[in-house]
Specification:
50% helix, two-stranded parallel ribbon, 11 helices, 2% strand, globular, mainly alpha
Length: 313
C-alpha cells in the first residue's frame, strides 16, 4: 500500500480515509494519532483526475454505445425489476472484467516520457516492482493480510448488502439459465444476446408459476441497497490532526509523516543517481499506444488470432 491515500473531500471518502489510516497505524505504531490521508481541495487531486479523464476518453465511449443498444431497442428498462436484475447479473461482471483488462493493459504499457520532468518513466508495473532500477526509493508498504481483513471487515464487510450483485436465489436461477444456453463466454458481440436469453427464461418462469410477491420484495430490496443512492454514513476517525506539509515546496506525499525526505534518504538517492546507468537510447521517445482508445479485450484476442492465421503461410 502507499504511505498515504488522497481524495476529494466529502462523506463518500470517509471510509477510504479511515481504512487507510488504520492500516498505517497497524503497520507503524509511531503514526498512531495521525490521519494518513490528504484531502485534495479544488484542483489539487490532479493524478486521479487525469486517470479518470483518460478512462472516460479511452474506455467509456465504446461501452456506452453497447449499453445504449439495449435501451434504444426496448430490451432494458431499469424500472423493471426482472430486467434490472438480469442486467446486473450479466453486465456488471462483464464490465468488471473489461475494466480489469484495461487496468492491466495500461499498467503494462510504457507512457510518454516528459523531457521537462525528472520523474522515472517506463512501464508502470516494472517501476512498481523494481523502483531501484529506475533510480528511485521504494516507499510502498507490504500489507499484513490479517490487518487487511480486519480493516475490511470494519469499513467494507463482504456480506454488506451493497456488495450483493443479486440475491443468492436469483443468482442460482440465472446461473441455471446461463447453463441452458451452454454458458458462452460473454463478449461485446453477444452480451445483449445472453441477457435476452436469460431474461426470456425468467419471463417464461414468471408466466408459468408467477414469481411470488415475497421474492419480488426481497429482490427489489437488494437492488435498492446496491444502487448509488444508498449510502451508510461513516464518520471520520476523531481527533486526528492532518499530515504535516511543506508549503514552500508543496510536498503532498507521506514520507516521514508528510515532512519529506530526511538526510539519510537524500544521501541514498544521491548515491543511486551517481551510480545510475544512462537511459537506453530512445526511451525518451516512448509514446502511449493510441489503440488504447475505445479498446475491448476481445478485440485484442481477435487481432492475435488473425496474426496467427496470417503467419501460417
Amino acid at each position: 500500500m502507499p504511505l498515504i491515500s488522497q481524495s476529494d473531500p466529502g462523506p463518500k471518502n470517509m471510509g477510504l480515509a479511515n481504512g487507510h489510516t488504520l492500516l498505517r497505524h497497524l503497520h507503524d505504531a509511531t503514526l498512531v494519532g495521525t490521519l494518513q490521508h490528504r484531502w485534495m481541495n479544488e484542483k489539487k487531486n490532479v493524478k486521479p483526475e487525469i486517470s479518470w479523464s483518460q478512462l472516460r476518453r479511452r474506455f467509456t465511449p465504446g461501452f456506452e454505445e453497447i449499453l445504449d443498444v439495449g435501451v434504444n431497442e426496448g430490451w432494458y428498462d431499469p424500472s423493471n425489476l426482472i430486467q434490472a436484475l438480469v442486467f446486473r447479473w450479466v453486465f456488471i461482471p462483464w464490465l468488471q472484467r473489461e475494466l480489469d483488462a484495461y487496468r492491466d493493459r495500461v499498467n503494462n504499457t510504457a507512457k510518454r516520457a516528459d523531457r521537462n520532468k525528472v520523474l522515472p518513466h517506463g512501464i508502470p508495473n516494472h517501476m512498481y516492482e523494481s523502483p531501484e532500477d529506475y533510480g528511485v526509493l521504494d516507499f510502498k508498504i507490504q500489507v499484513d493480510p490479517t490487518a487487511m481483513a480486519h480493516v475490511r471487515n470494519l469499513y467494507a464487510p463482504p456480506d454488506h448488502d451493497v456488495f450483493q450483485l443479486v440475491l443468492e436465489g436469483f443468482a442460482l436461477l440465472a446461473t441455471d439459465s446461463y447453463a441452458q444456453i451452454n454458458s458462452p463466454p460473454i463478449t461485446r458481440s453477444n452480451v445483449w444476446n445472453v441477457y435476452l436469453e436469460i431474461l426470456l427464461r425468467f419471463q417464461h418462469l414468471d408466466n408459468l408459476h408467477r414469481i411470488p410477491q415475497i421474492l419480488d420484495e426481497c429482490w427489489g430490496y437488494a437492488l435498492t441497497m446496491a444502487r448509488d443512492d444508498h449510502e451508510d454514513d461513516i464518520a471520520l476517525l476523531p481527533n486526528l490532526p492532518p499530515l504535516e506539509s511543506d508549503p514552500e515546496n508543496y510536498y503532498m506525499g507521506g514520507v516521514n509523516n508528510g515532512r519529506g525526505l530526511d538526510d539519510s534518504q537524500r544521501a541514498r538517492l544521491d548515491e543511486m543517481m551517481e551510480n545510475d546507468d544512462p537511459l537506453p537510447a530512445g526511451l525518451h521517445d516512448i509514446e502511449e499506444e493510441e489503440e488504447l482508445i475505445v479498446w475491448f479485450s476481445d478485440a485484442e484476442e481477435e487481432q492475435e488470432e488473425g496474426e496467427e492465421v496470417s503467419g501460417l503461410d
